[in-house]
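User:
Note these tokens:
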Amino acid sequence: MDFLDEPFPDVGTYEDFHTIDWLREKSRDTDRHRKITSKSKESIWEFIKSLLDAWSGWLVMLLIGLLSGTLAGVIDLAVDWMTDLKEGVCLSALWYSHEQCCWTSNETTFADRDKCPQWQKWAELMTGYTEGAGVYLLNYFLYVLWALFFSFLAVSLVRVFAPYACGSGIPEIKTILSGFIIRGYLGKWTLLIKTVTLVLAVSSGLSLGKEGPLVHVACCCGNLFCSLFSKYSKNEGKRREVSQGNVSYYFPLKTLWRSFFAALVAAFTLRSINPFGNNRLVLFYVEYHTPWYMTTRLGKYPVLEVIAVTGITAVLAFPNPYTRRSTSELISELFNDCGALESSQLCDYINNPNMTRPVDDIPDRPAGPGVYSALWQLTLALVFKIVITIFTFGMKIPSGLFIPSMAVGAIAGRIVGIAVEQMAYHHHDWIIFKNWCRPGADCVTPGLYAMVGAAACLGGVTRMTVSLVVIMFELTGGLEYIVPLMAAAVTSKWVADAFGKEGIYEAHIQLNGYPYLDQDEFTHRTLATDVMRPRRNEPPLAVLTQDSTTVEDVETLIKDTDYNGFPVVVSHESERLIGFVQRRDLILNIKNARQKQDGVVSNSVVYFTEDAPQIPASNPQPLKLRRILNLSPFTVTDHTPMETVVDIFRKLGLRQCLVTRSGRLLGIITKKDVLRHMAQMMNQDPESIMFN
């Protein structure tokens, strides 16, 4: 009998820290779809079930969009409230942030729109005084204390309940989408703890952002809803399609449309929540009126590391108003175009009392004392942000790099923008200005320089180009300035590539030893025979024969080796390849056969052929395992160039391929072997690839 006529649970699944077989997952989904299609003609109920199966993908995307948009809005609102909580509290409604508190006040003037009697700083609330050295020191102390409390709570929750909630999550998600299994990384606890601790980490004032971790949160939402539909829960390949709208490794066209639908639902949900308070979907909305012209030792002690970095950050950040506020607020002010009604230090220009031009067309003006004071503070903030971000990213709390990188670039861009603006005002006859900047005109917009600087810095860190321009457009709504953003993105990539080809996320993937094949070309002239195993002076390849191996032989082979699977050959003498069988499938089937199938003992012959072998009647009953045999494993010849092999592994997502010559099995190449060989060709340590 064929014991596997009716498959049982866990057959075809994978162990933790292993790579999935994309071809097998695709084949299983094709068989499933073919079975549903054939059954749909049998009855109305089966036809309805086939329709539900077809629309389940769209339903999953709808649910992901709703939950992701809701979580993003709630996180934004919570971060605003908790960030302001470090400085004071709203007496009229404790859950209001500083800005929301003063919105509801009837006693706020335009000049002092950030001051209202309903909002009180902690020192004022405790002592009744608003000024003085004691008041400043008390506010300073409480600011640091709140920051330490938020960060301690964040790192404690991560360490105790969900260690996978730390970091940005993007390197791991890219690796998971490439076919790697990390159990629990997209689980329910990770989703809950990541959401809560992301709010705490950002609110603590650490130099980190929430955009990268939000990608992890969205993928957790996708994995959560996948578990509700067998179409996705039982197929690792289909499950990965759901998350590919965020970080793609392989992007089918139908996934593109479904991802667009999920993004649309999330955008509508976010708009309904209105977390930014401006009825817009962008975080840093800009509208310019001038066109553009052409890791430490502390890492061993994660809690201590977070507390130490938070303490240093809070102590150094409080005295400078540009580092005290949240990074999102800082970027928003740096992007701002100075209008006639702005009260920021960056807009303290000397106005001409006889000016009669429209408010939206203010000419360039000489900088006032507030601008020069802001320049010194921004210079100090730039040095602080660069240094502290280096030590912050990678700590054991949710930490994104988008916003801190943009802040560094925006500060540098605003400084350069103000310098160019003043040069154009005082030296408009210089050759670089006189062809397009006439006296009394609005020639230079420093906020635009900040936006381009933010894009350039983020591009240099992540090596993104096209997607970076799209992200900047999404964040700012500045469609008119796509060309300078593209120029900045490309230039920053060229400059950064001169120091190294890897972006920050690729560097983290390599640092963690994840089995991820990047998109760089492999140009070395090596062959499959140079990489395959076994090599010279190594034991022969562990194989199974099609009809002469016993159950005891199989169990011994499994016990003595840690291979993920075994080739099946006709015999040890001929070594003619028949197929390939997975280790986990062998273990599960032999275990179940011993429990449920009478007559299967250690001496029972295991056969993978269609018909049972000729054995004496006195022998125990044989065990047929043909159904778990992959009869079409991917093979290459021993003279196949490794350039082709690497391309095959990357595009087909292979777990392993077999090396043959004229149908005779010579060896095997696994994904780990490919990664080791690539590292060796780049003069790197091949043993840095830690996972299977």
Observations:
- The longest strand covers residues 664-670.
